[in-house]
Amino acid sequence: MLTLITFPPSFSEPSHSPFCAKAMILLQMSGQTWEREDLANPSAMPHGRLPVLRAKGQLIPDSEFIQGWLTTQGADFFPDCTDEQKAIGHSVIKMVEETLRNALIHDRWLDDQNWAYIGPLFFDDVPRPIRKLIAGIVRRSVRAGLKSNGFARMSLEQRLQKVENDLNALGQIKGASPFILGDAPTAVDAAVLPVLSMIDRLPVETALTRVVRSKDWVGPYLQRGRSTLYDGLA
């Protein structure tokens, strides 16, 4: 049996991490028999990150590499899609896992009101005497990363404009279809749904959640995606 090593669930999401949730959805789509193994500290894992798939005596890190391995085992994550649609889908995944994911990270880790909920939950497994210290160290590291890539250096208005640009592009690609590339979910939805869903389920409403919810297509898409792709996960 395949084992997905993943961060635990939180806030009605299958995992803290959108990449872990993505990997779970891909495993469900693949038809493979699998189980989850929750891990709070991934420092001993390849790349020091999660998700990691334990499969046939090897550890496969990163949701993109997990998708690739499952494809070699016969999974089709783009059913009935043309090569052009697959290329568009690949580009959409990269777009969502860049700006929109950075926006999620920003409001989870840098917004003090959300951090008041996020910090205690994400570091619940750390011994209480050092929990606040460790959480603070990791939070500062996340802040430094967002400053390094420029996202945390932008004004609120600039961050929201980038988010709005991505949401408008996503809405145009999706059109009237139930899923991003058409009538059936694909690997694109495995990436898009967790990011949008985790923004929508931030503990405290922010300007980011309001922008995401303001798009007419997002609410129905989240409802459809959660009922279809999160079934048995969350």
Automatic annotation (TrEMBL):
Pfam families: GST_C_2, GST_N_4
Domain Thioredoxin-like fold: start-end pairs: 18-114
GO cellular component: cytoplasm
SUPFAM superfamilies per the UniProt record, alphabetical: GST C-terminal domain-like (SSF47616), Thioredoxin-like (SSF52833)
CDD domains registered for this protein in UniProt: GST_N_Metaxin (cd03054)
Coiled-coil blocks: none
UniProt-recorded name of the protein: Glutathione S-transferase
Native species: Phaeobacter gallaeciensis
